[in-house]
């Protein structure tokens, strides 16, 4: 039977400095929670309060209806275990000896371990994949192996709540993934409530079920990933613009940090020039980002709301033609597209795929191309490899080139050409 963690008006002050300011939240039994927020937001302070290393200035923490700070230490150690950020080992204990330390809350003074204790220690080492290291000195282990030893020690406590303080901070990416896979396994198979302070938002989004976002010593948001990991929340907490999408590999949220835009003199020179970028797909986003950074006024489309180009346009409040999903380009959307093209000084066709569904985008460019509207084609990959229309789109593409479109091999050359035209 698990326990529910409840925090009521938790406040931590160091003189005139406030580290945590009136936190209220509950964590249900069996939850898998990522504690996120920028440096200095109070993540480690909060975990130190929950683990009773730190006494709050005001407020209380309850395990069900029991005041955590009034529980006997041995009783608390049977309910809660901690994996600290620093897992360095300074003494030549063997792996097995360190894991056995997790049984101390269950042993009386001078009492030797029982067969049951040995069984629990062996199970903890098997679960964490370190049984083969049992007799190795802990000082000889890699960082990832030491993390597993410390988790095995925590498991030997048979806790109902496991606190992890930046568990992946000093690990290579392969060990980070291994660690979070193990944490999820412990949560799913053993029902252990896990609260982990973690910096990598994309790894957190891939693994954790619930989030608590700290900002300015308070809880800015708490809930499911979709409720917490929003552009608005990220901008408030981290002071940086982001775009939130979903990974095509696992469907989880993906956070992409955008650069802060501060136009320089060159960007100011380009500011009066309008560029329409034919959508869409992920190939178009680097082009949009490059041109926006250079100061051009952009428009995008036509694309669906699910397209990454649409998310870029929506975030930066760019004019964009939004298509219904899974629908052909109707005459109405075709006319809207023509209007955007004719309003632009330049039209850019990124190195994107074309098929029967979006071939009308090329037809609109062919109709609108003129000495007034220059067309620049980015051909980072031959068009024949991107033509899924059995050659129909390719024929339109060739006619656009014949009408004077400029063919460019890479994004840097595209930018240079646009700036040269703008200056002239």
3D structure, described in words:
With 424 residues, this protein is α/β, with parallel strands linked by helices. It folds into two domains: 5-256, P-loop containing nucleotide triphosphate hydrolases (Rossmann fold, 3-Layer(aba) Sandwich), CATH 3.40.50.300; 265-423, Rossmann fold (3-Layer(aba) Sandwich), CATH 3.40.50. It is 37% helix and 23% strand. The chain contains 16 helices and 18 strands. The protein has helices spanning 43-50, 73-79, 95-100, 115-127, 143-156, 173-190, 201-207, 225-228, 231-238, 265-270, 284-293, 308-315, 331-343, 359-368, 392-402, 411-423; strands spanning 5-14, 17-27, 32-36, 58-63, 66-67, 80-83, 161-165, 193-197, 210-215, 218-223, 242-246, 253-257, 274-278, 297-304, 320-323, 346-349, 374-378, 406-408. It has a six-stranded mixed β-sheet, with helices on both faces. It has a six-stranded parallel β-sheet with strand order 15-14-13-16-17-18, sandwiched between helices. The chain has a four-stranded antiparallel β-sheet with strand order 2-1-4-5, with helices on one face. Helix 15 links the parallel strand 17 and strand 18 (406-408). Helix 14 packs parallel to helix 15 (392-402). The longest helix is centred in the middle third of the chain and has 18 residues, at 173-190. It starts with a strand and ends with a helix. The mean pLDDT is 89.
